[in-house]
């Protein structure tokens, strides 16, 4: 097989949608798995939808996620960088080929006439599409009018028969030609439409596989016809399943729910987000769900992408993020934790103490944002609030006595370390005869205000003797 060349072709119209990240990721995985190339092409010919800063944001997001590309905006290749708005000459040159061979024609219909036509079609429950008024204009006349009148260029669609899309994921999909709209290829302002620029570029950039969202499937017969009109070889098409809410409705459009940036801000790790997004439509044969990027590259195959919609399950993402927060190296974790704590204004003078705090709270984290929340207690001289469960343990009948014994034992220690804390607890256990959960839960509740969370010896070590004693007194006073 010749070299695999795939592309991710976003339109810079705002934030990066989770679905876009999936498209980028699948293209990346497919390219790396097949030792091919990934190309990024910015499809920015629709000036009315252009959003300032969107491209930077997109490239930043790809960088953050670790999706590296071989050719594209920041990596000029013989025909890059790839901004379609810089390639207008190329599209102009190519449209003349289609005008000459008769597979495209100029259309002079005014916006008002087209509007009236659409309203009429809607009223009569007919499919909304161009009615072909300019399709049969005399060639010489059309050419003359092109010189002086405003016009668009449309593609000709055969008025009978069907166009067949062979899709790697969906199999054979047939489209009745008479239902396909005679799409505008070049707009009145001279800019190409998505369909035209997309096909010309896919061909010129040697794209072998077009992997994109299912919403583009209805456009594919138009693209296939364009390949035929040019006499070009077609790429392989693969349309990825829709993303759904847990109730199987189409995935929410609210930016906070679907923007990659917002997950990043909420403290999700790129490792977790990529693994999670990879599973939106693709899965391995077994039950395993944790696949770091290198394993995804090794395992990813288009044959294992499913046809049916993929449900976006936030609970699963949360679980996965917790898994990765414990899976990444200690060094990497500490760096992220330091950033989070600094952002929240939590910083002790001694870096060793910061390190201990970060490690103490690591267990049980869901997102990075939980770090400052859990670390807060190490920066305060009293427990600010007790959870309901913690209160329940603290108000049990024997608790006060238990904590008093602990206070006495702790006061005897010159300082509190992990080891001397063990001594204290041994003493409490032998004096009171209480052990297991009955012993540890009240202690945990008194020390942290919670019944779950960081490992207790780690907490105690960071708290030190003074705060251990004052937290015990606070709980006894309750
Ligand atoms: N520019 C299109 C988009 O924003 C690309 C679709 C395709 O991959 O062909 O999704």
Summarize the structure in words.
By secondary structure, the chain is mostly helical. It has helices at residues 18-33, 54-65, 88-100, 111-123, 139-148, 194-204, 220-230, 255-258, 260-265, 270-278, 293-299, 314-327, 330-343, 351-360, 370-375, 388-394, 399-412, 418-432, 437-448, 456-477; strands spanning 5-8, 37-40, 104-107, 152-155, 162-167, 171-176, 184-186, 209-213, 236-240, 243-244, 310-311. The protein is elongated and about 105 Å long. The protein contains 20 helices and eleven strands. The strands form five sheets. A three-stranded antiparallel beta sheet has the order 3-4-7. The chain has a two-stranded parallel ribbon with strand order 1-2. Strands 5-6 form a two-stranded antiparallel sheet. Among the domains are: 87-240, HUPs (Rossmann fold), CATH 3.40.50.620; 329-379, Helicase, Ruva Protein, domain 3 (Orthogonal Bundle); 388-477, Arc Repressor Mutant, subunit A (Orthogonal Bundle), CATH 1.10.10.350. The model has no long low-confidence stretch (mean pLDDT 94). 34% of the residues are buried. It is 47% helix and 9% strand. Residues 9-11, 43, 194, 198, 212, 216 line the site of glutamic acid.
Overview in brief:
By secondary structure, the protein is mainly α.
Q: What is the makeup of the main sheet?
A: 3 strands, antiparallel
Under the CATH scheme, which architecture of the domain at 87-240 would be assigned? 3-Layer(aba) Sandwich
The rounded Rg comes to: 31 Å
CATH superfamily of the domain at 87-240: HUPs
Number of strands: 11
Query: Structural class, from helix and strand content?
Result: mainly alpha
Taking pLDDT < 50 over at least 5 consecutive residues as the criterion, the unreliable ranges are none
Within the CATH hierarchy, at the fold level, what is the topology of the domain at 87-240?
Rossmann fold
Give the N-terminus to C-terminus distance in angstroms.
Answer: 75 Å
List ligands, each type once: glutamic acid
**Continuous helix count:** 20
């Amino acid at each position: 097989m010749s070299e695999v060349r795939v592309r991710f072709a976003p339109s810079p119209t705002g934030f990066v949608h989770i679905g876009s990240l999936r498209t980028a990721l699948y293209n990346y995985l497919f390219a790396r798995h097949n030792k091919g190339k990934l190309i990024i092409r910015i499809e920015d010919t629709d000036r009315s939808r252009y959003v300032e800063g969107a491209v930077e944001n997109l490239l930043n997001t790809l960088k953050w996620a670790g999706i590296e590309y071989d050719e594209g905006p920041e990596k000029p290749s013989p025909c890059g960088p790839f901004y379609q708005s810089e390639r207008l000459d190329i599209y102009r040159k190519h449209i003349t080929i289609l005008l000459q061979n008769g597979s495209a024609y100029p259309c002079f219909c005014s916006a008002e006439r087209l509007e009236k036509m659409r309203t009429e079609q809607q009223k009569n429950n007919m499919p909304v599409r161009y009615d072909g008024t300019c399709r049969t204009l005399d060639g010489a006349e059309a050419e003359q009018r092109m010189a002086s009148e405003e016009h668009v260029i449309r593609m000709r669609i055969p008025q009978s028969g069907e166009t067949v899309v062979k899709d790697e994921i969906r199999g054979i999909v047939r489209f009745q030609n008479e239902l396909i709209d005679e799409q505008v290829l070049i707009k009145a302002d001279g800019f190409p439409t998505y369909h035209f620029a997309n096909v010309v570029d896919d061909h010129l950039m040697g794209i072998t596989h077009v992997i994109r969202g299912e919403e583009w499937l209805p456009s594919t017969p138009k693209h296939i016809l364009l390949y035929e009109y040019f006499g070009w070889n077609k790429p392989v098409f693969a349309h990825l399943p829709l993303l759904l809410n847990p109730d199987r409705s189409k995935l929410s459009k609210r930016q906070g729910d679907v923007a990659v940036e917002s997950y990043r801000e909420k403290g999700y790790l790129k490792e977790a987000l990529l693994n999670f997004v990879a599973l939106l439509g693709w899965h391995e044969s077994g039950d395993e769900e944790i696949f770091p990027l290198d394993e995804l590259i090794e395992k990813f195959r288009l044959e294992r992408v499913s046809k049916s919609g993929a449900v976006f399950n936030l609970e699963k993402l949360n679980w996965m993020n917790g898994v990765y927060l414990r899976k990444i190296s200690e060094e990497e974790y500490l760096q992220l934790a330091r950033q989070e704590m600094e952002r929240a204004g939590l910083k002790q003078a001694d870096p060793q103490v910061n390190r201990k705090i970060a490690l103490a709270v690591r267990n049980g984290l869901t997102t990075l944002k939980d770090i400052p929340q859990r670390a807060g207690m190490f920066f305060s001289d009293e427990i600010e609030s007790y959870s309901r469960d913690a209160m329940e343990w603290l108000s049990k009948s024997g608790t006060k006595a238990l904590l008093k014994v602990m206070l006495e034992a702790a006061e005897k220690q010159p300082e509190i370390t992990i080891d001397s804390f063990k001594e204290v607890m041994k003493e409490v256990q032998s004096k009171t005869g209480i052990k297991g959960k009955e012993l540890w839960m009240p202690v945990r509740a008194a020390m942290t205000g919670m019944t779950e969370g960081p490992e207790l010896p780690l907490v105690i070590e960071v708290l030190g003797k003074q705060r251990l004693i004052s937290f015990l007194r606070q709980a006894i006073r309750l």
